[in-house]
Amino acid sequence: MKLENEYLCVEISEEGAELTRIYDKQKETDVLWEGNPVYWKRHSPVLFPNVGKTYHNTVRIQGTQYPTSQHGFARDNTFTCTVCKKDRAEFLLHSNEETMEVYPFDFELYISYTLTEKTVEVKWKVRNPSDETIYFTIGGHPAFRFAEQEGKKDDYCLHFPGKESLQYILIDPNSGTANVDETFEMELQDAKYPLSEQLFENDALIFDDGQIEEVWICRKDGTPYVGMKCEGFPNFGIWSVKDAPFVCLEPWAGRCDNRGFEGDISEKPGINKLEGMGTFTKTYQIVVA
């Protein structure tokens, strides 16, 4: 599926309803990571019904333990295209016998992409078609490649407009879940923070409490390259792979388990609770400078 205007060319796959390309036609540059498996095979997967890992890779739902996979199953399922226009596409995944084996809830997950000038708007809609309350987390995971062929992290910085500092936590390497016992301070200089390999030595940086509503990847001189606007998201992740020429900006509604959490899904901190016949929506924008 392709969306296109005079500024951008955007491609989306029905596999995972995943955004696979953002091409800047004016600068003749790919902005989204091309999925080279040497570093990371994906581009911009949708994370559902769980963001990140659960503790011991299981989830307890009404007294029963179910196995989970990192970032959930949506990214590995084929969606149905329900809207196909030049500037907008929408995709649908709904519960089935296979999903029920690991996630015993009825759901409809709609992912839509709208292209307006140099902005790609991403919208998630989760609909609960049953009378039963359902629980989930959902997140984005777009990876932005550096503009230059030989670009490195040291050539770029992150810009958080209006911010002086941010607080983040890290992933516990033994469980892959969040270590909430230690918080780190990210002191910003002119609302900016330099990218580096060292920044990701301990996996992703996790920002809670709705701290990030806008962030830009900029060149070292401050020139903006690509940005994200994500108002109303309680959690945010920033991640990359060693020596990889990309960085992921990840808006999340909920996140991985806290280390040691073994309660029911309904008790998980930050879980989204959707009543019967209800609808949940979240929207963010990718803006090419």
Automatic annotation (TrEMBL):
Stated name of the protein: Galactose mutarotase-like enzyme
UniProt-listed Pfam families: Aldose_epim
InterPro entries, alphabetized: Aldose_1/G6P_1-epimerase, Gal_mutarotase_sf_dom, GH-type_carb-bd, LacX
Species assigned in the record: Faecalicatena orotica
Highest taxon listed in the record's lineage: Bacteria
One GO BP: carbohydrate metabolic process
Gene3D superfamilies named among the record's database cross-references: 2.70.98.10
Organism taxonomic ancestry: Bacteria, Bacillati, Bacillota, Clostridia, Lachnospirales
Molecular-function GO terms, alphabetical: carbohydrate binding; isomerase activity
